[in-house]
What we know:
It is a single chain. The protein contains five helices and no strands. By secondary structure, it is mainly α. The protein has one domain. The radius of gyration is 29 Å and the shape is elongated. It comes from Litorihabitans aurantiacus. It is a multi-pass membrane protein. Belongs to the UPF0114 family.
Amino acid sequence: MTAPDRPPTTTTTTTVTQEAEQTAAVSGFSSLVFASRWLQAPLYLGLIVAQVVYVWQFALELWHLIQYAFDHSHVPEQYEGFTSEAITMLMVLGLVDVVMISNLLIMVIIGGYETFVSRMRLDGHPDQPEWLSHVNANVLKTKLAMSIIGISSIHLLRTFIESASRDVDTDEMMWQTLIHLAFVVSALALALIDRMTLGSKQRFVPVDRGDTAG
């Protein structure tokens, strides 16, 4: 009576080893790709530096406004020939412009870092922004578009105020208006796409109806 044939254990072991090595290589490469998100960290650090520059710019603009409020002879060169009311309005709009751009930077820094780099783990923090709890790429793009519209509105308003005190090129005003309208249309399109995407996700979410009694 002959003994039964034994399975080729050597071939099986080699195959398992090759699969394990291949899995380890793919896992290592995947970890490297995932870790590459930290390459964006210096970019957000650079935006923080830009935020500091805007704080300094705001302080300078505020100082010029205070100087002009107490002494109308301190008129910035770019506002020469304007009325006192127009100069004050333009200076205040300059401050608002700096603040809105600073808000835009904050949204990009915090929202972008939270979305593309790492969780900030701010759950329960009393100062956590309201929008950060549900931020994603679509929400971030929509909010950035709205901020850009606000900044464009400030620049357009400044141009209309300046047109009352000096000759402003009609083509310049027209192009600023068209660009502003393009920003508005783009923001509406982003909001519509976000709403359509959210609606499609809700339609495909399975609903647990539970067992019905017979």
